[in-house]
Structure formats: C-alpha cells, structure tokens
Amino acid sequence: MLREMGRVVAVETASVWVETIPSSLCGKCAARAGCGQGIVSRASGHRGLVQALETSAVRARDCRVDDEVEIELPESAVLKGSLLVYFAPLLFAIAAVLLAQPYGEFATVVAFVLGLAAGFAVVRVVTHWLLPRQSFEPRLSSVTQPQTSVANSGVIARH
What we know:
Layout: E1 2-11, E2 15-20, H1 23-28, H2 36-44, E3 48-53, E4 68-73, H3 75-100, H4 105-130, E5 139-144
Antiparallel strand pairs: 1-2, 1-4, 2-3, 4-5
C-alpha cells in the first residue's frame, strides 16, 4: 500500500481534496532521479492536489479543512494503471504494424500511429465505462486534527 500525508483543502460529500507533497513516495522510487513528476515537483515547489475517497474507517464528514490526513493507494492500482496506460496502446500499435507490413513502409508508419491512437481510445473507454473509477482513486486512511497554536500559554522564555 502506498501512503502519503497531506492537508485537507476542501471537503465534499463522499471525498476530500488533499494537498500533498509527493516526497515520501519519490524517496522510495527507483526512478526518482529521472522521473518527470519528481523533477517538476522539486523544481516548481508545487504540491499535488488529490481527491481522496472516504472509507468505512474514515468518513469525509469527519474531516475539516487544514486537517492532516493520510491517504493510501493500493500498489495493484498503480501496476494495473501503468499496464493499461502504457502497454495497451503499444500493443495496439505493434498489432497494426504487423498487419500493415505487406503494404509497405509508409503504410506501416501510418498503421503505427493509428494503432497507437486506437490503443489510447480503448484505454479511455475501458477506464471510463468498464472499470470502476474507485479502483484507481486514493482513499483516506487516517485523520489527524491540526495542531492549534497557543498564543498565550503563560510561559515566558528568558535568555
């Protein structure tokens, strides 16, 4: 299970919007030096905005803006998503190339492009209509209330 800490920025009926910094996951990833997401996040300082679905353990109504939350995503969802997004279009493109080989080089190139486009179209159809969207969405795993600062605690520091 991949886990990430973040801060709630908005609460909806069955989900919350969480602002995260993907540093903890990036530190564990083998591709961290060459990953586009990690490079862009480090260079721009932008935080990711993620919609996390509620679970039976943590409901969206239990969260407030500025709460610290932990979200999780099953590793199988990352693997399935990667296979679907990368492998399926490539498979369609290779199949189209193999079918177009008898018709010449130009037909092979055109078939590759069309096969790739068809593969992406199939991925879109599969992810929007056949697979449940929730299987690829992060979920809330725990909530920590924000630390409240005590402005006047009665303690005076002397140097």
